[in-house]
Amino acid sequence: MIDALQDFASSLPGVMQWLGVMLISAIPFVDSYFGSVVGVLIGLPPAVAIGVAVIGNVISMLGFVFAAHGVRSKVVAGKAAAAGAGASAGSVSSDASSSRNEKVRRAFDKYGVAGVSLLGPFVLPSQFTSAAMVSFGANRNAVIAWQIVSIVIWGVVFGVAASLGVAVAG
């Protein structure tokens, strides 16, 4: 997969390669960490590779957070209206509940927004982790802030590691 993403980004004209890295970093499971690696591998300066990878990942994550927040707000409002009308507010059934979602929920209950944001990439991409936390009722702004911190940290760690690897191999 990294090879295909690297081929895509490197096939773009020089000036546009940073846009390619930004675009692929918006893809869940690629995120800032693999995006910064691709940027370094195609020859972008590490600071540029990491920066555009972070920007792409943050933009994508924000889309997921705002979508999840909108859905949750409507569900909560619907339950409140149903409860006010005397109807049963029963639980919302979700077939989308997976073992990974349950892992995120358990981690969220144990470590909170900061812990899940920083450790979340080991379980799910930042887009899914952030949307899950917002759907659990976490404060949207706290999720955004901690996800940005996490995206920057992981992008820098992987980008620097790729830079060192290129320097050693070069």
Indicate the topology.
Layout: H1 2-11, H2 17-25, H3 31-41, H4 46-84, H5 99-119, H6 126-135, H7 140-169
Helix pairs in contact: 1-2, 1-3, 2-3, 2-4, 3-4, 3-7, 4-6, 4-7, 5-6, 5-7, 6-7
Structure report:
There is one protein chain. By secondary structure, the chain is mainly alpha-helical. It has one domain (2-83, 96-169). It has seven helices and no strands. α1 runs antiparallel to α2 and α3 (31-41) packs antiparallel against α4. Mean pLDDT is 88; it is low at 88-96.
Keyword list:
elongated
Portion in beta strands: under 5%
Supply the helix-strand structural class. mainly alpha
The CA-CA distance between the termini, in Å, is 22 Å
Describe the biggest sheet? none
Radius of gyration: 19 Å
Order of SSEs: HHHHHHH
Quick structural summary:
The chain has 170 residues and is an all-alpha fold. The protein has seven helices and no strands.
